Amino acid sequence: MPNSRRLDRLTLADYALPASITERLFSPALVVFLDHVRANVQQMLEYLGGEPTRWRPHVKTTKTPVIWRELVNAGVRHFKCATPREAECLVKLLLDMAVEGADVLVAYPLPSPNIDKIERLAKAHPGMRLSVLSEAPAHAASVPAELGVFIDINPQMNRTGIPMADRAGIEAVARAAGSRFRGLHFYDGHVHDDEAALRQERCWELYRELLSIEASLRQAGIVVGELITSGTPAFPYALSFAGFRELDNAVHRISPGTVVFHDMFTDDLMADVELRPAALLFTRVVSHPTADVATCDAGSKSLAAEAGDPAAYVLGHPGLVAQTPSEEHLPLRVVDGNLPPRGTELLLVPRHVCPTVNLAETFLLVERNQQVSVVEVAARAHDLLVPEG
Fold it and tell me: Rounded distance, CA 137 to CA 117, Å?
């Protein structure tokens, strides 16, 4: 995918770091610009028509309570996460902030003992509403009484969930969940066609099928309380889908999480959204292996590389194009301009910000007035063992 013209228009002045910090900053280092985070959250609220209750952001992207606090302050009360560690960190923040009406969905088919940790959280904090996903009657029946159940529907992504055509299987899971049944989870993350009109067409076709599933359950006497759709590539088309606005008995929520930090993939793909990169990787040029290549010290151990090349965009330097990284090296080919000297400080916009954040133990948090602090990425990685006793 070529460099994004919108990213070309960003200025380094909007991402300034004080020299007193950069001279002490090891590279590579993740840097989060809080003012850009706040701008993205406010932009999302505009897309939501000022209704934060329609947003159930996935916190797997941001993984950090200091960022989740911005969502809470914006009025968000419904959240989605993927791991028990994310759920534990999120519940702690919500309790610390004395948030009323908080609702956390662990959107993953959790086996034991993973699900047992969510049960313990629910028992310890009965005022907090926690739910999990299920796709099988036996599993739904075994979900602890303290937890809600959302049925995971497979919208042809073929990752998890019950196929949309299996209406009997969907109803069986709902009946097995009984009073714990809360709604349908429908992640349309595979819809990322290049053209917005085609993305909308494909999404709307899927949403019509989802509404048909909801209607079938309702006709069978099963109340669907909530429909959850839409990661980042699809959320505008869910918000514009008339069928979701006309629901009488169910609430519809979208669940994009990447939008808080934004990234190169989303910026290249979605010309119909106005967001700005907020989490960038600070790096330095360390080598000139050829006359037209400058290598920096950011490789696949600090920058997610699974989403393809280029793995990042070099902010303020559209003439530098990232090549395939190795573990500790990212070659930058010079296609326009001069070879940057060794020691040159650069900021990279990750192609895929979510796993990039997970690679960092800490990040540098920067505000517009250049106040900085070091923040732990508290919800990164996974737990290992259930404590004894």
Answer: 21
